[in-house]
């Protein structure tokens, strides 16, 4: 039996109304049972990394076959970086409403009060499981297991090879230490293979028990680092011609020059992608074997543009960019019982539309009190609606809160307005350099026509301003970071990593940086804090600070870690930090473990 994980917040009061099973067909597709759902999303795989999108070199036969028998939204958008995309996908809402602002330093955590896809589906009677990359909070109450997923098998942070890796198992794509229902466990094999195996086992159990299932398979591949990739596939691609000359159809915008390093990196990325494709073949084989192929929705998309400029079908940009190459994704909607294989819609859609669409397909009503920004595109795929004009808004950049006009795009069925100020800074200098493109005749964004269409520019800018004002006042302290709970019965001890700290000095993940974590003390009493250093042993004075209280000890002999007991006398929101001395310099830790002792 698949256990229900304990909910961490009071469920919203609402009735999940199911359409009558008899006589309630959808546009000629008779429905007897609610469909199962599998959502697969890769990490940093671009629009052009598929055979079905014109890549002449990469091997994606299973995804190519899926594309040939799936409905497709041909104008589908995601955020230019990963955590914002995941927040939109999970909630059906703009990520700026969810407190998920950035990809690290505590801003990839999503407010736990958000109602997630998993919570809605589990309340409606589905078994829910996630296998891969969550990236919306590593600690209670923001973990996937706290947010509606009954089975979880995930890595921490934004990817394997980051500061959130388990100590002693850093950077291991092969034989990784992953977190199964919140507990660290050693696994064997390549990470993508492990995720799919876990998902297939979960599907087997759900079908055996007669339960509909929601499976979320968000990969961390082909995200870097690239030191550990499927070896046989890597060797295959190293023997192929991967030079830019192979991508002659990329005629819109030039690719950077080839180097040995870039060709090797491309071979590694393609090996990761083909490994995902092989696992998609395993997935469809299992659905056929279990006789649930016809009435299982399988969705495939990517989370943002490619990790580095490479073939994107002639489009401009890559990951972090608001040009088409950074924000366009394929959207494959495979549902033999509900959507025709040749269904194609050019209606503009985005990641926050997926949850409303799945609820529509599964005949699950929207819970009372939940406000979606997205809308169902199922009528478009089923031929029940023509493309209707709307605005799609995408914005993402570094920092603690969004800045008006910084690295944004707004698009309707014809026009796209953007300011490509770049993701990597918290702000931009000077006056925004707006660009306007008529995508109906210039889909590759080659001609900025803003000077010739002042009325269109004014209307699009006004629509963006209204949107920005709206999302910025979604709740009090709208952009305040969520707090990690310490001392809660549901999670003790708690691991605090640089993924979620609010850095105050130096590079956030650099050796000599400093930072603090925003926490919510759930219980007073004695705690033990274990300090793990970054790149050197502890020596000299080691200090832990919670709010204005401070505890320290002096180490005369180098140590790999040390423990300090503290007494917390007040509940509520505060901060915790630690520091230690290396060669006369004060540094922040690599990780902390905080354990309540009583």
Quote the distance from N terminus to C terminus. 33 Å
| Strand residue percentage | 15-25%
Low-pLDDT sequence parts: 1-31
Mean pLDDT: 92
Account of the 3D structure:
The structure is a single chain. This protein has 598 residues and is of the alpha+beta class. It has three domains: 36-154 and 192-381, Alkaline Phosphatase, subunit A; 392-472, Arylsulfatase, C-terminal domain, CATH 3.30.1120; 484-596, Galactose-binding domain-like (Jelly Rolls), CATH 2.60.120.260. Helix content is 20%, strand content 24%. The protein has ten helices and 28 strands. The chain has helices at 61-68, 82-91, 117-123, 191-208, 231-238, 260-289, 324-327, 354-362, 378-381, 454-472; strands spanning 36-42, 71-73, 76-77, 127-133, 151-155, 177-180, 183-186, 213-218, 296-302, 328-329, 332-334, 344-345, 349-350, 392-395, 408-411, 415-419, 435-438, 484-486, 494-497, 502-505, 514-521, 525-532, 538-546, 549-559, 562-568, 572-582, 585-587, 591-596. The strands form five sheets. The chain has a ten-stranded mixed beta sheet with strand order 7-6-5-4-8-1-9-11-2-12, with helices on both faces. Strands 18, 20, 21, 23, 24, 26 and 27 form a seven-stranded mixed beta sheet that branches. Helix 4 (191-208) packs parallel to helix 6. The two termini are 33 Å apart. Mean pLDDT is 92; it is low at 1-31.
